[in-house]
Amino acid sequence: MTSLDSSPDALPGGTGPASKQIPPAAVARLTIYLRALTTLLSEGIDRVSSESLAEASGVSPSTLRKDLSYVGSYGTRGVGYEVQYLNRHIAAALGLTHDWKVAIVGAGNLGKALARYGGFESRGFEIVAIFDADQMVVGSEVGWLRVSDAADLEPVLQRTGANMVVLALPAAVAQDVCDRVVAAGVRSILSFAPVMLQVPPGVNLRKVDMATELQILAYHAQRAQDPEDAD
Fold it and tell me: What global pTM score does this model have?
């Protein structure tokens, strides 16, 4: 095992349970640190400085150290961070030490691609069901799963124990399906539908809108090509 240069200004102190609510922006960055740490582990690196980990994650060392303070994990001055321990610590803070069962609603191109992706299981997410309303699709196989009828959404969610749902649906039907998912007791939803969904308090909804992200990229690309317009 090897180390990346130890950090002379790593925060002193030990470790302890997280006692603060983690801001959403920090949660997003913690997932990036976790990915970087997983890569370091695969390379046989057992210690890393705040500078090296921050550089691998695309943030400043001060931001990294502040984010890690939310999970009660600190480096040791002159030694840096123990990669395996920090990896486990962040995973626990993010809830990734549990097994999460995920159902996908929508067996179109996106839904099928998500169901076939092999990288979820290694991160603690098991795809347990996929649904569609098209009777030409219901009963077909996607990977090792058989597409269930969307009419059977509630009983299948209960039978499989799904505690997360991904919506890969057209905008016109997304809210109705979202309401059914919530009524079935699921409190964590990831939506790819191009529409703003309404959920009651206590339900965590995350939205991924690729068109919006591409529009933002187009804006920045245009400014880069026409610097005079940026003034």
Answer: 0.72
